[in-house]
Amino acid sequence: MAAKKPLNVVKIRKMKEQNERLTMITAYDYPSAKLAEEAGVDIILVGDSLGNVVLGYDSTIPVTLDDMVYHSRATARGAGNTFIVADMPFMTYHGSTDETLRGVRRLMQEGHAHAVKMEGGLEIAAAVKSIVQSGVPVLGHIGLTPQSVNTIGGYRVQGKDAADAKRLMDEAKALEAAGAFAVVLELVAEETAAAISRELSIPTIGIGAGRECDGQVLVFHDVVKYASPYMEKRFVKTFADVGSQIRGGIEDYVNEVKNGAFPAENHVFKADEGVSESLDSLYGGGRSEEATQQNAPSASDKEKVGTQG
Q: What residues form the catalytic site here (predicted)?
């Protein structure tokens, strides 16, 4: 497959104008990023969802800036020709502008991201504007915002009634006005997401937000069912089941080692002719008789386990 050229924010906006759907997937390390790039995705998101699917947390809240820098850097090494967005983790953009920009700088300089993603709407618009003015592209994220799950009443669909739909529209417009190049809509009622997508001049990227968004994003581990146990989600389609294949492969490995089938003849390396005899002559062909006798079970030991002498 010929090497592709990475997108930029101008091309991303152009794709909306040309009605070309955007594809985005999360990745958190070198091999998953490399596979995603080879598959042709437009954007890779180094999401703080790594807290759930890679680090074993029950939410994204424990994920630190150091975690994000580490995983973004590894992802960038695997996908040098793909536009990479890194999440700003919990509480790294709600303080002073200087503090926010220090976090952004780390994700860009140390994590080698091309853009950052931030959850929230009106309350973070000023921070988004400051970051964009500093020269860093920002991807917005509204609807279900996992970092705020404790204040929005859990994992529930957003924008189902008129008042909530208007709130989301206002937040999306605020992010657009602040300079965001696109907005993720997560777990949003389809009609609301469609209206927002029509109203904005920047692309919307949906996850559980229906069919009318300008693009879609899914978590890598959901796409390929790489989890145990795997939790089915209504808004997710799995396109492969590598989890079962991985588990089955490891089970086969364990069984073959236990029964002596692995390593087989074709897995070993041979020494020069005569090496085995030379070692035997030097070291007595294995453990000495004295060592063998010392490790042999005594008569009393045999009696304890019912062994016949």
A: 186
Whether residues 66 and 204 fall in one domain: yes
38: left (phi over 0), alpha (psi -120 to 50) or beta: alpha
148 in a known ligand binding site: no
Amino acid symbol at 276: S
pLDDT digits (tens, 9 = 90+) for 26-62: 999 999 999 999 999 999 999 999 999 999 999 999 9
Asked if residue 49 belongs to a known ligand binding site, the reply is: yes
Catalytic sites, residue numbers: 186
What's the rounded mean pLDDT across residues 228-233? 90
In the predicted model, is pLDDT for residue 201 greater than 90? yes
Alpha-carbon distance 239 to 237, whole Å?
6
Note whether residue 120 is domain-resident.
yes
In a domain, residue 43? The reply is: yes
Domain end among 181, 208, 240: 240
CA 243 to the chain's CA centroid: 15
Q: Do both 35 and 175 map to the same domain? A: yes
Cis bond before residue 263 (omega within 30° of 0)? yes
Strands 115-119 and 83-87, bridge-based pairing = parallel
Contact 242, 225 (CB under 8 A): yes
